Amino acid sequence: MGKRLDALLGRSFKATKFKGTASLAVSRLSVLKNQRHARCSVARSDVVQFLTNNTHDRALLRVEQVIKEQNMLDVFVVLEGYCHLLVERLSLFEHNKFCPEELLEAVSTLIFASTRCGDFPELQELRAIFTLRFGREFAARAVELRNNCGVNPKVIQKLSTRMPSLEDKMKVLKEIALENSIELPISETPVETSVSSSEEKAEDERESGSLRGKYKDVADAAQAAFESAAYAAAAARIAVELSRSESGDPSTPKEQITSTELKSKNIVRRSFSESSSDSEGGVNEGNEVFDVREMDSDGKGDNGSKNEECVEPLDISRRPISVRTTWARAR
């Protein structure tokens, strides 16, 4: 019953389809190997050219491309061998829904490599066939590299996205220089890089240690940060005031703030006086006026000029909330 249901749902394993897909994968692998080999040869020739011109820094950077192409070339060789192995041992899992132990590494490695090789459609088809045959859990264990997944550790290392270390790059650089009979100053670049990096780390550790010893706890550090920010803001404010005074502007921000405060106090005082007079006389006016002579006297007293009376209409809707409440109660 289970075989019939699998056949009706299209979940049955087809050996001919698997063989055809594996053969196409092998053909694709041969093409990809030739491409990677050509790229690797070009990168190695660039490294040789840089070494000949004594530009060792650029040669060290170009070695990264050599390592990348060589890793992919090694992976393709391993995958090609696995494809041939599965075609030869097809009878072991043709009638079995569980992957045999001797083929676990080959199947799991092909599934894992399908997620790292985007330009390999045949490998994607093989992954779909294995997922349909052995289950999604089996495929997920290989993709996520769970325990006992069976993926080849060498392939995992070759397909890693990490940058090659300095030791690996220097090793390949020495090999290329030795093959082309080029003398390479071995101790210049790595020693300078390691010394500079160690000095930077030591300096960072000293700075962090001094800062930690300066403050007692988090609150103390936060208070110091707040004080420094306030000091910076005060310095910026003073700089603005000095720039205005140098440009000949008689009014400073402090004087403007003081005049604004006096104006608001005068408005409130006269509004209260008018509201009290309205409540006693029984006369309500829609508009009121206020005097700003007190404010203008501060700014014009030094010049000896005569203060002029400034009158401005004030609508009831512009009164403060407390004034409007008192005025409404008086009515």
Give a short overview.
The protein has 331 residues and is mainly alpha-helical. It is built from 14 helices and 2 strands; from the N terminus they run ααααααααααααβαβα.
Please tell me about this protein's structure:
- The protein has helices at 2-8, 15-52, 56-88, 90-93, 104-114, 121-134, 136-143, 153-158, 166-179, 188-214, 218-246, 253-281, 293-300, 321-330, and strands at 287-291, 311-315.
- Mean pLDDT is 74; it is low at 5-10, 188-196, 250-254 and 267-311.
- 72% of the residues lie in helices and 3% in strands.
- It has a two-stranded antiparallel ribbon with strand order 1-2.
- The chain is mainly α and 331 residues long.
- The chain is extended, with a radius of gyration of 42 Å.
- It has 14 helices and two strands; from the N terminus they run ααααααααααααβαβα.
- It has four domains: 2-179, Up-down Bundle (Ferritin), CATH 1.20.1260.60; 187-214; 215-248; 253-330, no CATH class.
